[in-house]
Design a protein that fits this description.
This protein is α+β, with helices and mostly antiparallel strands. It has a domain at about 5-120: Jelly Rolls (Sandwich). About 45% of the residues lie in helices and about 25% in strands. The chain has eight helices and eight strands. A four-stranded antiparallel sheet has the order 1-8-3-6. A four-stranded antiparallel sheet has the order 2-7-4-5. A hairpin with a 5-residue loop joins β4 and β5. The longest helix is centred in the last third of the chain and has 26 residues, at about 120-145. It is globular and about 55 Å long. The chain starts with a helix and ends with a helix.
C-alpha cells in the first residue's frame, strides 16, 4: 500500500478510523525530487510539510558569509518543513534540498488547516510533532554549547544511524558544527578504539 508508511507514522500518535485514513490520504500529494533539487529555497514561503517515503532531505540556511548551516535531515519516515515560514506564511530561512532521489508526500498548509477542522485529532498529532521538534532543537543547542565535537558526532550516529555511511562527510560536519577534517580524525579515532 502506497500510504502505509505515513499512516503507520501517524498512528503511532493518534488512532484513525478507516474513513479518517481515507480522508487524510486524499489531502496528500506525491512528489519525487532528483538529487540536488529544492523543495524550498531561502526567502520563499513554505507551503507544504513533506513526509519522506524514500531518500533524504536536508534543511539548511546560508549565512551572509556563504557558510552553510545544516539544521536537519529527513530520511524515510520523517517530516520536514520550514516551521517558521509554514506557520507564519512569511518568507522562510531554510533551503530544503534532496540529497538523493527522494519520494515524498506533501501536505499543503491549506489542507493541513482543513484536516484540523475535519479531523481535530490531527491538531494533537502535529502538536506532538512540534513539541518533539522543539525539545530536539533545544537539546541540540545545549549539546552544541556544552559537548565536544566527538560527543556531538556520537549523538548524530544515534539519531541518524542509517545516514552515518550514507551522507557526505561535509554534510555531517556542517550538522554537528565541526570541520570535515576534524570529523575525519574523530571517525578514525572511533574506528581505532573499537
Amino acid at each position: 500500500m502506497f500510504f502505509e508508511l505515513i499512516l503507520n507514522n501517524v498512528c503511532k500518535l493518534i488512532q484513525l478510523t478507516e474513513p479518517e485514513k481515507e480522508q487524510f490520504v486524499s489531502y496528500l500529494h506525491p512528489k519525487t525530487m532528483r538529487k540536488k533539487e529544492f523543495l524550498l529555497r531561502q526567502g520563499e514561503v513554505c507551503k507544504y510539510s513533506a513526509f519522506v517515503l524514500s531518500g533524504c532531505l536536508r534543511g539548511y540556511s546560508i549565512d551572509k558569509n556563504g557558510t552553510e548551516h545544516v539544521l536537519s535531515f529527513a530520511p524515510a519516515d520523517w517530516w520536514m518543513a520550514d516551521m517558521y515560514s509554514l506557520i507564519s506564511q512569511q518568507p522562510g530561512v531554510l533551503n530544503i534540498e534532496a540529497l538523493e532521489e527522494t519520494e515524498m508526500l506533501l501536505l499543503s498548509k491549506i489542507n493541513q488547516d482543513k484536516l484540523y477542522a475535519d479531523i481535530p485529532k490531527f491538531e494533537r498529532f502535529f502538536r506532538i510533532l512540534a513539541e518533539k521538534s522543539l525539545v530536539a532543537n533545544q537539546q541540540r543547542l545545549i549539546d552544541r554549547l556544552s559537548l565536544t565535537g566527538e560527543e556531538r558526532y556520537k549523538i548524530f550516529c544515534d539519531r541518524y544511524p542509517t545516514l552515518i555511511n550514507h551522507l557526505p562527510q561535509k554534510q555531517i560536519a556542517a550538522y554537528i558544527g565541526v570541520s570535515p577534517e576534524f570529523l575525519s580524525r574523530a571517525r578514525a579515532e572511533m574506528a581505532r578504539s573499537r
